[in-house]
UniProtKB/TrEMBL annotation:
Gene this chain is encoded by: LOC106477196
Keywords: Signal
Gene3D superfamilies with a match to the protein in the record: 1.20.1050.10
A Pfam family: GST_C
Protein name: Glutathione S-transferase 1-like
Signal peptide: 1-19
Originating organism: Limulus polyphemus
InterPro entries associated with the record: Glutathione-S-Trfase_C-like, Glutathione-S-Trfase_C_sf, GST_C
Length: 114
């Protein structure tokens, strides 16, 4: 699970800040990490325990950054369900995460359009 968070930085940073094409090896590593998370969520409703914890919030923050790249999680149904559930359970999620991510996404797009 930590690997999924770290892979975000390796995968996304060059694309967002340097306009580079996705690196196939890093993309495959990210997908592998997501696969581990998907499998873990087959047996558990949350990342650490039976209720929302800081672990869920941390992983969600990292995964939500992938919205900047319009990353498609639909191949991971357990993960997609978990994302939807956690978005509902994190207090003020829209204001503290979703809206800032959207603003960042718009900024990235404006930089690419220059």
């Amino acid at each position: 699970m930590v690997k999924a968070c770290l892979m975000f930085f390796l995968l996304q940073y060059p694309q967002v800040f340097h306009g580079q094409a996705p690196d196939p090896e890093k993309e495959n590593n990210y997908k592998t990490a997501l696969g581990h998370l998907e499998k873990y969520l087959e047996k558990s409703s949350y990342i650490a325990g039976d209720q929302l914890t800081l672990a869920d919030i941390s992983i969600m923050a990292s995964l939500s950054m992938m919205q900047v790249l319009d990353y498609d999680f639909s191949s991971y149904p357990n993960l997609t369900a978990w994302i939807s559930k956690v978005k509902q359970e994190i207090p003020d999620y829209k204001e503290v995460n979703e809206e800032p991510i959207e603003a960042f996404k718009n900024w990235v797009k404006s930089q690419r359009d220059k």
